Amino acid sequence: MSFITSLSGLKAAQTDLATVSNNIANSSSTGFKKSKATFGDLFASAPTQSTKSVAGQGVRLTGIVQQFTQGSLNSTDRTLDLAIAGDGFFIVEGSSPRQAQSFTRNGNFFVNVNREVVDNIGNRVQMLPVDANGRVTSTAAADLYDFVLPQNDPADPNAVLSNITISDEGVVSATFSNGTQTRIGAVAMASFAAAEGLRPIGDAHWQSTGVSGTPLINQAGNGPLGTVRSGTLEAANIDLTEELVSLIAAQRNFQANAQALETANTLTQTIVNLQT
């Protein structure tokens, strides 16, 4: 039994090491959220058996939980670099034919050849429709549309785009060379009843699951979504000192379980030698 107990401890320590190592490896990844491995003890006994005479049977992994705490906000001075001060997520959509919807905290956005605003892996940023005053007119998922920068003023083809600004509520305003200004829309944001239930798919992107619940869509400044900070990016929520301490603890745990396994092997070998 001690072999099985020590082996479960080795596997648990190895998982803990892998989790902490992944956190450290992504300490420079924009919008990354750290994870923590959680464990529980294994114990089993018959109904008629006294639990005072039964030892535990080891440890098991109960889950690797992501922690969506706020990362530090770093200034970049790029208008399309967006950070969220709050619990919200940007909504992005993949390319055809799947057009899978995902959610990210990495607001390092760019403009592609089609003048679409996309994230670091090419997903298109989604927008909510607004009226002339910048108020959102619909928060329905069916009304989301791609964030596309206009090349010319719709009312004056000779006026080209001069600059864009993005407010704390995510409202995007375009200014043209003739001095006119129009509101393109509001950057769509999503929140979840249980963000820890989101499924990570890499590159600081997540997909909703039955555990996380369906996304609640709105513009920034509503409920827990927080506000949008233009010209800013959110750093990974990693404290390297804390992670290095956790790495040392996981390493010592691994070594202790390996020593327990070696001790159990020595005892077994001693018993075998006595019988011979």
TrEMBL record:
Domain of life according to the entry: Bacteria
TM ranges: none
InterPro entries: Flag_bb_rod_N, Flagellar_basal_body_rod_CS, Flagellar_FlgE/F/G, Flg_bb/hook_C_dom, FlgE/F/G-like, LlgE_F_G-like_D1
Location of the Flagellar basal-body/hook protein C-terminal domain: 230-274
This protein's GO CC annotations: bacterial-type flagellum basal body; bacterial-type flagellum hook; cytosol
Assigned keywords, A-Z: Bacterial flagellum, Cell projection, Cilium, Flagellum
Residues annotated as domain Flagellar basal body rod protein N-terminal: 5-33
4Fe-4S listed as a keyword: no
A Gene Ontology biological process term: bacterial-type flagellum-dependent swarming motility
Primary location recorded for the protein, binned into one broad class: other
Flagellar hook protein FlgE/F/G-like D1 domain segment(s): 83-174
Family matches, as SUPFAM superfamilies: Flagellar hook protein flgE
Localization per record: Bacterial flagellum basal body
Known role: A flexible structure which links the flagellar filament to the drive apparatus in the basal body.
Record-stated family: Belongs to the flagella basal body rod proteins family.
Protein name in the entry: Flagellar hook protein FlgE
Species this protein is from: Sphingomonas ursincola
